[in-house]
């Protein structure tokens, strides 16, 4: 079982991820914007952070960059989950420290499989 933080401003997507990941035996926390996500990550030190890119207050790329700037999160896995789909977007996310990049719309089953591979 892993501690997973989902930082997603779309409540339907956040709920779907919460249900699917909880069913998979994980402990899931939710944050609805980038600033709240950064605060939650610092308070809980999750094993995995799933970040939407386009969010209010701080975007997912900013959150990823800030987490990677801290040695406390060197072992934390980060997955970007976004509607952004260009190779430039993927490159920017990976350069910021993301470990995986999943585009929306996504298959919930495939996403859970990717989560399992990341935290294995």
Question: How far is the first residue's CA from the last residue's CA?
Answer: 10 Å
Q: Please, what is the CATH homologous superfamily?
A: Response regulator
CATH C-level name? Alpha Beta
Oligomer: single chain
Spatial order of the strands forming the largest sheet: 2-1-3-4-5
List the secondary-structure elements in sequence, H or E: EHEHEHEHEH
Largest sheet: 5 strands, parallel
CATH topology title: Rossmann fold
Rg, alpha carbons: 13 Å
CATH architecture: 3-Layer(aba) Sandwich
Helix content: 40-55%
* Beta strand %: 15-25%
* H/I helix tally: 5
Can you give the mean pLDDT? 95
Number of strands: 5
**Class from helix and strand fractions:** alpha/beta
The 3D shape can be described as globular
- Number of spatially distinct domains: 1
Q: Which regions contain 5 or more consecutive residues with pLDDT less than 50? A: none
Keywords: Phosphoprotein
Pfam family, one: Response_reg
Organism: Microbacterium sediminicola
Protein name: Response regulatory domain-containing protein
């Amino acid at each position: 079982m892993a501690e997973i933080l989902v930082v997603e401003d779309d409540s339907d997507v956040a709920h779907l991820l919460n249900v699917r990941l909880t069913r998979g035996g994980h402990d899931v926390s939710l944050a609805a914007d980038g600033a709240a996500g950064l605060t939650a990550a610092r308070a809980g030190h999750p094993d995995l952070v799933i970040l939407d890119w386009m969010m209010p207050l701080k975007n997912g790329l900013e959150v990823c960059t800030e987490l990677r700037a801290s040695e406390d999160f060197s072992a934390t896995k980060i997955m970007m989950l976004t509607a952004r789909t260009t190779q430039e977007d993927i490159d920017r996310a990976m350069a910021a420290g993301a470990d995986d990049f999943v585009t929306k719309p996504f298959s919930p089953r495939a996403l859970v499989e990717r989560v399992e591979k990341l935290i294995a």
